[in-house]
Design a protein that fits this description.
The chain has 7 helices and 4 strands, in the order ββαααβααβαα. The protein has 3 domains: 52 residues, no CATH class; 91 residues, no CATH class; 40 residues, no CATH class. 49% of the residues lie in helices and 15% in strands. The chain starts with 9 loop residues before the first strand and ends with a helix. By secondary structure, the protein is of the alpha+beta class. The strands form 2 sheets. Strands 1-2 form a two-stranded antiparallel ribbon. It has a two-stranded antiparallel ribbon with strand order 3-4.
Length: 193
């Protein structure tokens, strides 16, 4: 399934047609959205086909990224992450809103054998090539998109609750998921965000 890229955030605004009729018109929400539209060559009067989805509550999105910031600052091994990459890493580690996908293993096996040859030499790599079963597919965990238009508000709430539960279980066993969520909110107020 191909996923659309460069989504444009739109907002319904009131508009008046030449005949005086009041209608709702979609208007690009932010400057980046207007830039994307210009880059695509959209003009007034162009007809476009669109799939519309309602955006999530932005405060909840912000809350999740505050949780990511808290993890970056307080969990060993996350120091080099951004708040978003920390959330995505937690998502994959926990399996919350993830899917298993089969990918072609050939490039991975070849890269492994090339690295083996560089480190171990041709003879060892030849033996490795002989004993490795022919691996055609590998199952990988792929995190679903957290984008506003890819995950509903209800799904995002379940994602957030799942990540808090995973953090409590894995990194802060003395806390409940609800306490982790409360800590993230306190973290925000103590860091002047």
């Amino acid at each position: 399934m191909s996923k659309p890229t460069n989504h444009i955030m739109m907002r319904f605004e009131a508009a008046t047609l030449d005949n005086g009729q009041r209608v709702k018109a979609l208007v690009a929400r932010f400057a980046t959205d207007r830039r994307i539209m210009a880059e695509r060559g959209y003009r007034v009067g162009d007809e476009v086909r669109a799939v519309l989805t309602k955006a999530r509550v932005i405060e909840h999105h912000r809350k999740a990224h505050l949780l990511g910031q808290m993890v970056v600052s307080q969990v060993e091994g996350f120091e080099s992450e951004t708040s978003h990459s920390a959330l995505k890493r937690l998502q994959v580690d926990s399996g919350v809103f993830c899917e298993l996908e089969s990918i072609d293993a050939a490039p991975i096996v070849e890269a492994l054998l090339s690295a083996s040859e560089a480190v171990l030499g041709a003879v060892a790599t030849s033996m490795l090539r002989a004993v490795l079963p022919k691996i055609e597919k590998i199952q990988v965990t792929v995190a679903q998109s957290l984008a506003f238009d890819r995950m509903s508000q209800e799904e995002f709430s379940k994602f957030y609750t799942g990540i808090c539960a995973y953090l409590a279980l894995t990194y802060w066993p003395s806390l409940t998921a609800e306490q982790v969520e409360a800590q993230a909110e306190l973290f925000d107020s103590h860091n002047g965000s």
